[in-house]
Amino acid sequence: MEIERLRNLIVLAEERHFGRAAQRLHITQPALSRQVKAVERELRVPLFDRDAHRVEVTRAGAVLFTDAAELIQRYDELLARTSRADNAVTGHLRIAYSMTAARTASDALVQTFRDRFPNVEVTATDGWSELNVELLASGRLDIGFVRPPVKNGVALHPLGNTELAVAIHPEHPLAASARIAPAQLLEVPVTLWSRNLGFGYFRRTIDQIWGDTDSTLIREEPALEPIVATVAAGEGAAVVDLHRLEQLHPTGITLRRFTPPAPTAELAVAWNPDNHSPLIGRFLECCT
């Protein structure tokens, strides 16, 4: 039996009138009537004697509602104690984002953690996969957002894939295409995030777009700003996280999606299994 349904029946027992009870509960009378019938079917006893003019509690209903009021009070106290226990959690959680990814998913997780554990101090900085893994391994970081695959030694909780797209100058010949096929990039200088920021991410991007036919015209940059500047100057194209660039709203840049299936990049939460901070487990709870 649902606890909220039981609450509603207690209100009806107090009001002894469907209209007043429904108004007090902010639900319709038919909805309240269906709840009464559902509970009576479940218990196989009538809880109310009712006709067009009156609603009376039966003997079985009186027994139920007397004990139910105490049960609901204990249930509410349990929820309150649980909430206070969460609020009593303290400490310091060190988090690093991934510069290559849009912050939508990671920001939402961090905010959920902050809301759930307001007494925990959270330090959040920008990073990248290779650096975050290094900091996790050395114990200088608790949670890192990374682009798998990454080096062994860290545990991962996948958050899903993000779509990659092509950034080009509006006057570049490729801008005439509604979508861009990977083969169209073979003879075009293409800028990618540096492999030093995340070799797994770099290698996976190349494998998805060119496969065994590596382009010899690949450039590497350590940050999004020089990638955007290169494209805005008309120097070829760049492969970037679609939503990351959309968040930046750069001028002088046109985004084109790939022809299906579009290449993607995985995003994951990483942590060091040898770090036994209870706050890591609390953060992972926010990811599910």
TrEMBL record:
GO cellular component, one term: protein-DNA complex
Transmembrane segments: none
Domain HTH lysR-type stretches: 1-58
Regions annotated as coiled coil: none
Record has Transcription as a keyword: yes
GO molecular function: DNA binding; DNA-binding transcription factor activity
Keywords annotated in UniProt: Activator, DNA-binding, Transcription, Transcription regulation
Any Pfam family matching the protein: HTH_1
Family to which the UniProt record says this protein belongs: Belongs to the LysR transcriptional regulatory family.
Name the record gives this protein: HTH lysR-type domain-containing protein
Origin species: Nocardia terpenica
